[in-house]
Specification:
By secondary structure, the chain is an all-alpha fold. It has helices at residues 20-44, 48-60, 65-89, 95-115, 119-137, 140-145, 153-179, 186-207, 225-229, 234-253, 255-262, 267-315, 322-348, 351-383, 387-405, and strands spanning 10-13, 16-19. A two-stranded antiparallel sheet has the order 1-2. α10 (234-253) packs antiparallel against α15 (387-405). The radius of gyration is 21 Å and the shape is globular. The protein starts with 9 loop residues before the first strand and ends in a 6-residue tail after the last helix.
């Protein structure tokens, strides 16, 4: 009779051999913590403004879409500066500590938005959230990807995107629930709840995430562009990321306002559409690993950019069932496109080059984000409608398809 020998996979974690179940449990806890941090960075610190924009605009900004767009511009300008900060600080501190510092800034911004809701201070709070969000997001895909084997790195990066989706769902539902109180300033309480969650995520990042002391390459160059140029297909990849930066922010930042102001839908329906987008973001994050491993980054990005553009145009219909298809499509591609880009850089950059390379790619993306909210607000005020904003978003999505098509065919 053959002797039975149990099969135990041994893996290394910080130089210590562990059995596979123990390693998997540890990896799961770390990835969940990173997902929570990503939700604070993006869903709370950046996209909540789009959800509460109609109420905050009417409550403290005099009903001006232009001023509301300027507030969004402050947030994304800070995100752009945060990418430069990430490239600089990552050469001096570990990626884990970079994430922690970003989380401190983002949580401080959330607390300020809740406690001091006056226009000037709100601008400072949104700036803090944007700067901190970049410092959280840039290391997150790599920190998650290193927890899993090479063939599952895309799945790990996608999970970080799913964390953002969970945060979006939560934000949409929280805003809708608080609006039921029919009080004009309930939008502030949304930020209050998120600030508490941000504090809990910070505690988790301090206790659970362990730094390996890694730093970025000394050859990263100014803003990380030397490191980025060592990534295969860097030029079309950056172009696709830039086009996506315009497309997604024009659509998502004004989605709720478009459905309420132009389509005449109730705030509850608009929030439900935003929440559906969040659910779809979760699904997209869970699926991106499958799509990248089966079809490659190039085809995934082409399809993702195309579907995002089509979904943007569906928003213009402004009625059921099309708005639900649109919200689902936007959410699916919202996590698929950036996770695919991050996966490409994780796969084609060394551990030392990843930080500056992804920072450099995010700079181009950040420039697009910096211009998009203000551009959208000005266009909406000039046209008296958000329709041209969504048409422009679809145009940028088409540009993203073309850029992705120029990636090497084997990627």
């Amino acid at each position: 009779m053959a002797r039975f020998v149990p099969k135990i996979n041994l893996m290394y974690n910080g130089g210590v051999k562990q059995d596979s179940p123990s390693r998997e449990r540890s990896a799961a806890v770390v990835i969940i913590t990173i997902m929570a941090c990503a939700a604070v960075a993006q869903a709370f610190g950046r996209f909540t403004w789009g959800v509460v924009l109609p109420d905050a605009r009417d409550d403290v900004l005099g009903g001006s879409n232009t001023v509301a767009g300027l507030m969004g511009t402050l947030n994304v300008t800070a995100y752009l500066l945060g990418t430069l900060g990430a490239a600089f600080f990552a050469s001096k501190i570990s990626l884990t500590n970079l994430l922690r510092r970003g989380l401190i800034l983002s949580t401080t911004g959330l607390l300020t938005m809740w406690l001091v809701p006056v226009p000037g201070v709100m601008g400072v709070a949104l700036f803090l959230m944007g700067f901190g969000g970049a410092m959280i997001w840039i290391p997150s895909p790599a920190l998650a990807a290193r927890q899993l084997p090479a063939h599952r790195k895309a799945f790990a990066a996608g999970l970080v995107g799913s964390g953002i989706g969970i945060g979006i769902v939560f934000t949409g539902q929280l805003a809708a629930w608080m609006r039921d109180d029919a009080k004009p300033d309930t939008w502030k309480q949304v930020y209050g709840v998120e600030a508490v969650i941000g504090l809990l995520a910070l505690v988790g990042a301090l206790v659970i995430l362990q730094s390996r002391g890694e730093t970025v390459s000394a050859r990263g160059g100014l803003g990380g562009f030397q490191a980025l140029r060592r990534v295969e297909g860097w030029a079309p990849l950056s172009a696709c990321y830039t086009a996506y930066g315009f497309a997604y922010l024009l659509a998502i930042a004004f989605l709720v306002a478009r459905l309420e102001d132009d389509s005449g839908l109730s705030s509850g329906t608009a929030s439900a559409a935003f929440s559906l987008m969040g659910f779809a973001t979760i699904v997209g994050g869970l699926s991106v690993g499958f799509f990248v491993s089966r079809f490659g980054v190039r085809r995934t990005l082409m399809t993702g950019s195309g579907v995002f553009g089509a979904s943007t145009l569906l928003v213009l219909v402004g009625s059921s069932p099309w708005i639900w298809f649109a919200a689902a499509g936007l959410g699916l591609m919202f996590s698929t496109v950036p996770a695919s880009i991050a996966t490409h850089i994780v796969q084609h950059a060394s551990d030392e080059d990843y930080g500056p390379a992804y920072s450099a790619a995010t700079l181009a993306f950040g420039f697009a984000q910096m211009l998009a909210p203000q551009l959208g607000g000005v266009i909406a005020d000039a046209a008296g409608s958000f329709a041209p904003v969504f048409v422009l978003s679809a145009g940028f999505s088409a540009a993203g398809v073309i850029a992705a098509w120029k990636l090497p065919r084997h990627t």
